[in-house]
Predict the 3D structure of the following.
Amino acid sequence: MTTGPAIDPAGLRVPANATVHRYVPHNELVPECSAVVGHGGHATAFRDSPTGCHCS
């Protein structure tokens, strides 16, 4: 999960099977993913679609 610049991930309680970052470059992460869950922003959909990853 990413929080953006407004929230410090260190202040969140996160389950052991999850990670939280302020920012993750789509181009590095998405090719390794089988699915992406986003908030409906067009940037995520446009960046992820060429990789064959399914966006929700």
User: Anything to note?
Assistant: Strands lie at 35-36, 54-55.
